[in-house]
Design goal:
329 residues; 4-stranded mixed beta sheet; 13 helices; alpha/beta; TIM Barrel
């Protein structure tokens, strides 16, 4: 009993798996660890998205986006410092047989999204290629709707596999582009590829026959929310060949507030009071602001000949609402 009291609470579930994970590599800024996966494909917990399944090859994301709302997923592993989300990266130990068994459980009419909590093409993917191995396995199946959400041009490495997957499945890529201002992008998304590389990736993907959507997520009040700024992203993405465009206002879970609000204090101190006021009562904005973004996207997609949401034969875009929980433990 005394030993248990001194050693702290006994970890269970995903926290236990994290504690037992094997160190793969320690860099100056980040540790990579390998952990067992209870499953690779998880049904979305939201009742509004009963037809959505999620895949995250990694836990944590090295891109370190200041606004990231998925940081709380590390809390399931009792890693409560929000910075650990970007410095302790867990690569799931991949087993083809288990992945294919998970895939077989997904009804054909449902959508499977890769990268709902962590970017599947973050730097760890260059080392461990788990996303590529998942796609290679998926190419052996048919009849699925498979989407990828990323902000990395590394996705173009897998054009050959994506072509194979698309022979018998629907494949779609969401590319997040919050701004074309590369200095601003470096502040907001310090370790992510610059916007010009993401646009070039869209060009390469669409030239290869892979359909793409540009996500201007999130729209941050007084930072990247002018009509001109949003239209510049939409216009550039349209030129690159996307079929659809989406934008949504920033929302701040408690874990992301711990990172984003100090970031605002440091780099946009003149906005500190406004953000405290906007987000003091809730994690997401309501009323005129999101309605304005909705109307702007409707106007821009009409102007540039894009669809605002996926058409019937494409996986639905996400997140539909900041209240959704796409990231079950």
């Amino acid at each position: 009993m005394l030993f248990e009291e001194l050693s702290g609470p006994r970890l269970v579930g995903i926290a236990r798996l994290a504690e037992q994970s094997e160190l793969l590599e320690a860099k100056q800024r980040v540790d990579y660890r390998e952990m067992e996966a209870r499953s690779f494909i998880t049904k979305c917990a939201s009742p509004n998205r009963h037809n959505l399944w999620t895949v995250n090859p990694y836990r944590g994301c090295e891109f370190g986006c200041r606004y990231c709302y998925a940081r709380y997923t590390h809390e399931f592993m009792e890693l409560r410092d929000p910075k650990l989300f970007e410095t302790r990266i867990f690569a799931k130990r991949f087993r083809v047989s288990q992945f294919l068994a998970d895939l077989a459980k997904v009804p054909a009419e449902h959508a499977i999204w890769i990268g709902t909590a962590t970017d599947p093409y973050q730097p760890a993917e260059r080392r461990y290629s788990i996303t590529r191995r998942m796609l290679t396995a998926a190419a052996r199946t048919g009849g699925h709707k498979i989407g990828i959400t990323t902000k990395s041009d590394l996705v173009t490495r897998d054009i050959d596999v994506l072509r194979e997957v698309s022979r018998a499945n629907v494949v779609h890529v969401n590319m997040t582009i919050t701004t074309l201002d590369e200095e601003l992008a470096r502040l907001l998304e310090p370790m992510a590829p610059r916007p010009s590389l993401r646009l070039r990736a869209i060009e390469q993907l669409t030239a290869a026959g892979v359909r793409c959507t540009a996500l201007a997520h999130p729209i941050m009040p007084f930072i990247n929310d002018s009509d001109e700024a949003v239209e510049s992203v939409c216009a550039a993405a349209a030129r690159a060949g996307v079929v659809s465009f989406s934008a949504a206002a920033l929302f701040l879970k408690p874990c992301s507030r711990q990172v984003f609000l100090p970031f605002i204090d440091k780099f946009f101190p003149h906005l500190s009071g406004r953000y405290q006021e906007l987000y003091k009562r809730r994690a997401y904005l309501e009323g005129d602001y999101p309605e304005r973004i909705h109307a702007l996207v409707a106007r821009l997609t009409g102007k540039y000949g894009l669809v605002r949401r996926g058409v019937a034969d494409l996986p639905d875009e996400w997140p539909v609402s900041p209240q959704m929980d796409l990231f079950p433990a």
